[in-house]
Design brief:
Blueprint (H helix, E strand, L loop, with lengths): L1 E12 L2 E13 L4 E5 L6 H8 L7 E6 L2 E2 L4 H7 E4 L11 H11 L4 H14 L15 H12 L6 E5 L7 H16 L3 E6 L2 H7 L2 E6 L2 E6 L1 H7 L3 E6 L3 H5 L6 E3 L2 E6 L2 H14 L6 E5 L3 H9 L3 H7 L1
The structure holds adenosine-5'-triphosphate (ATP).
Adenosine-5'-triphosphate binds next to strand 1, strand 2 and helix 1.
Length: 310
């Protein structure tokens, strides 16, 4: 669905050139839900704008939904949906009128447009809001309307730019369910986010971008496994004896922590071994690595801190 090679964008500014995206390769298979994760300013929006024909790359090439990005941008546009950060639903229109207007714009007859709108209102939980002005909708309802507008022409590939930004936790979860449903309906989804929980929950596969380059790629679980293992924390009066058995173990009072691969599976054997040498335990915890640990390992910086500072 997406095959991009060496895609790059350099901006010329008064203070000199800015390499926003430095030659990225991106592959997305049909039906995948791929998350494009990175801190503010990493190059997510610039990449997305290139992939959706809104910005011409300064180098590289791509085939999107079967059409060449550089030689057939109109073909690309016909076959994709794009939901930007601030979408263009006409502010003083009613919800159903707005959708119907767009459907007619895509060339549907009045009859087909009405059928399509009814279907989308149902799918995106917007029934009962047909006559409401777009401005009067809640944040979550507006985002669902934006996405409904993005899939009016039944694209097989949908781009979502930071879909849940500025939504409250409940509306975010609800929106995520709708995004998952799009995937279940067979739509390939490429979404940018700087939220770790969103990337973790939604993505089959993640691309992590930092300073314009892709620094990691894999399923959320694969990426977490790549970090130096799960963190095991044991409470024991013999903490230093336990620490002597594991590399890089850290002792704090009656607590010892260390990382091991596949902690949940390794734990029973490990506890038996400690029991055999007479170690007494009063607590056991295993923490899986988070995507933030992944980012920290790849870049030396915490994505969580970056997001908070933004
Ligand atoms: N039109 C422009 N002119 C000059 N520099 C730009 C332009 N657009 C983006 N940049 C720079 O390119 C880099 C990447 O920006 P981009 O918006 O792609 O990042 P992002 O990962 O989408 O960030 P955010 O999460 O804040 O949207 C940043 O350093 C940004 O300042």
């Amino acid at each position: 669905m997406i095959k991009a090679r060496g895609l790059a964008r350099r901006f010329t500014t008064r203070t000199g050139p800015v390499d926003a995206v430095r030659g990225v390769d991106i592959d997305v298979a049909e039906g995948e839900l791929v998350g494009f994760l990175g801190p503010n300013g990493a190059g997510k929006s610039t990449t997305l704008r290139m992939l959706t024909t809104l910005l011409r790359p300064t180098a590289g090439e791509a085939v999107i939904a079967g059409h060449d990005l550089l030689t057939d941008p109109a073909g690309v546009r016909r076959n994709i949906g794009y939901v930007g950060q601030k979408n263009g639903a006409g502010q003083d229109q009613g919800v159903a009128d707005e959708l119907e207007f767009q459907a007619r714009f895509y060339g549907l007859s009045r009859h087909d447009a009405r059928r399509k709108v009814a279907d989308l209102l149902e799918r995106f939980d917007l029934r009962g809001l047909e006559k409401r002005g777009v401005v009067t909708l809640s944040g979550g309802q507006q985002r669902r309307l934006d996405i409904a507008m993005g899939v009016l022409h039944d694209p097989r590939l949908l781009f979502l730019d930071e879909p849940s930004t500025a939504l409250d936790p409940q509306s975010r979860r609800n929106l995520w369910d709708h995004v998952k449903q799009l995937k279940a309906d067979g739509v390939t989804v490429f979404l940018t986010t700087h939220y770790l929980d969103e990337a973790d929950f939604l993505s089959d596969r993640l691309l992590v971008i930092d300073h314009g380059s892709i620094v990691a790629e894999g399923s959320p679980d694969e990426l977490k496994h790549r970090v130096s293992g799960d963190l095991v924390v044991l409470g024991t009066p013999q903490a230093s004896i336990v620490a002597s058995k594991f590399q890089n173990a850290v002792v704090e009072g009656e607590q010892v922590s260390f990382r091991i691969p596949n902690g949940d599976r390794a734990l029973p054997g490990l506890l038996r071994d400690l029991d055999d040498i007479g170690v007494e335990l009063h607590s056991v915890q295993v923490h899986r690595p988070t995507l933030d640990d992944v980012f920290l390992t790849m870049t030396g910086r915490s994505l969580r801190e970056e997001a908070r500072a933004a």
